[in-house]
Amino acid sequence: MEKLRLLLLVFSVNLIISIGQSKKIHLPARKTHHGFGFDYVTGSIMGPQNWGLFWPDCKGNRQSPINIVTHDALYYPFKLNYLIEGCNFKGMFKNNGHSPTFTLNDKGTQISGIPRFPTDIFELYNFHFHFGHSENDGSEHSVDGKKYAGEMHMVHYNTKYDTFSKAVNKDDGLVVLGIFLQDLNQKFNAFDKFINHHGHKLKCINGQVKTKFNPFTLLPKKDDSFFYKGSLTTPGCFQSVNWVVFKHPVHISKKTLKTLREMETIYNHEQISVAGNCRPEQPSNGRVVLRNCK
């Protein structure tokens, strides 16, 4: 049965390519990273190994995530500046079928001090979560080969482009903060309480709730971090992301991790934990990685 599935997959891909070549039909490319039609299932026609057939940027040479090798990273003492108005921010927390995602309604949550664009200001657009099929490989990035239980991405866009959609494919368009999540048996923190209160509303696809939250409570206490030039980790994989990956994880409870990993995906309504929602690591291709910690 497995050999038959593999043969059908190869046949389908070859058929699509041959039709596209003979009739000069371009394979569809999504304009944004949160379009429909992709999944994380090994062997699926829309799985990560085939994203490049439909979204050309996914075959680029500056793709994410990567394994960060500490001793190869160059020391550069950058420091992020947080420009935050208020404590809690209104938004929509939704299960979009790929990941639990909180999209902000309010503006005024900004950062600056990004290497390469130190004076540019980047506005927080959303934050979302990635998990693996097991608790030991839930982060997309790794540091010296080490992965964590999960990874949160805080997606920011350059304010000179006014909106996320205008910035998404620009070289200086996006900054994403990558924060590792480590599960512990501990007392609930603010995020645990937030998920404990709202998580059941997000279990099904398109489940959503209007609420308030301050995502900056999830930042690590230490600013030790790495910077590199990469891409979105979901189609269309635009190579417009300036990544800041924090070295130290933040802690969430095992109950919170379980709630997030049990949310349904668009693939047969399976839970995130079945296949995970992490893109496999991509080649670094000699990219320079900076670190602000010695």
TrEMBL record:
EC number: 4.2.1.1
Pfam families: Carb_anhydrase
InterPro entries, sorted: CA_dom (IPR001148), CA_dom_sf (IPR036398), Carbonic_anhydrase_a-class (IPR023561), Carbonic_anhydrase_a-class_CS (IPR018338)
UniProt entry tagged with the keyword Secreted: yes
Keywords: Lyase, Metal-binding, Secreted, Signal, Zinc
Residue stretches making up the Alpha-carbonic anhydrase domain: 36-293
Keyword Magnesium: no
Protein family membership: Belongs to the alpha-carbonic anhydrase family.
Function in brief: Reversible hydration of carbon dioxide.
Protein name: Carbonic anhydrase
Lineage of source species: Eukaryota, Metazoa, Spiralia, Lophotrochozoa, Mollusca
